Amino acid sequence: MSNKKTLANSKTYKTNPKLNSICATMNGRFAVGSDDGIVRLYRGVGDNSLNNFYTLSHNRITMIDCTKDSKYMVITTDKELFLFDCSYENKNGFDNRL
Questions:
Q1: Domains of the chain: residue spans and CATH
Q2: Which of 22, 46, 57, 85 has its CA 20 to 30 A from that of 94?
Q3: Model's pTM, two decimal places?
């Protein structure tokens, strides 16, 4: 057995998803925005996204922020401001497929 610790995990994509913004929750989950207006919710680094949210106009995501309880996200584009509820039927989108 090795005593080595993993310092970083990574996720490799077949094509460049053009990720540009990120926010992390208090329990280590995170959301990532992209140039094509998609927000992906992840349980951990190296995992596949559990849920994707699409902005109405598919404009470039400029900023993402999450509430402490990871129930809501505020997302901005160059022209829009969105408030997403990340839960449905008492399940959180960072931990469960919605």
A1: 19-89 (2.40.10)
A2: 57
A3: 0.75
